[in-house]
Amino acid sequence: MTDNQDEINDLNAEIDDLKAQIESLENNENVEEYCEMLDETNPEIKIGSLTYSPSDVLKNTDETAFRCGMNDYNDSRLTDLNEELENKEQELNELIEDND
Known about the structure:
This protein is mainly alpha-helical. Helices cover 80% and strands 6% of the residues. The protein has helices at residues 3-26, 31-41, 54-61, 63-99, and strands spanning 45-47, 50-52. Strands 1-2 form a two-stranded antiparallel sheet. The radius of gyration is 20 Å and the shape is elongated.
């Protein structure tokens, strides 16, 4: 197998992965990822001696805000992933043309 063919195979695998990520975001299958982002970027909520994660507090006190925030998060991620996908597909097409 040629070096170009290895690169083509690698790019195809990356493209498949990006498409799977995009599909997951479009179907809102990333609640856990969104919760992790909320928990990593916000401090824990303390009430007396009790401590709660930001994602649990938001999800359980204002589900509408949680869903809106997740939609905004997904839109931002989709923009980035679609741009990356477009770049990878362009790179793949150039490699294929060079192989011909």
